[in-house]
Amino acid sequence: MLPVVLLVLALIDLRVELMLLWDHLTLTSLTAAVRSHLLAVAVLLSQPSLWYHYRRYRG
User: Which of 5, 7, 8, 17, CA to CA, is 20 to 30 A from 54?
Assistant: First the structure.
């Protein structure tokens, strides 16, 4: 459950930035979103590792 909870919380934190990026995707807006929400971006980038880790120990 932890990867799902972290994913949902990261997407909630990034929802406004994602809507802005959807409207106008520029390098400046992308770097501003990453710099403003570094923890949420780190959680999104670590999702494959989290899923691998928790599925491996599950059974």
Answer: 17
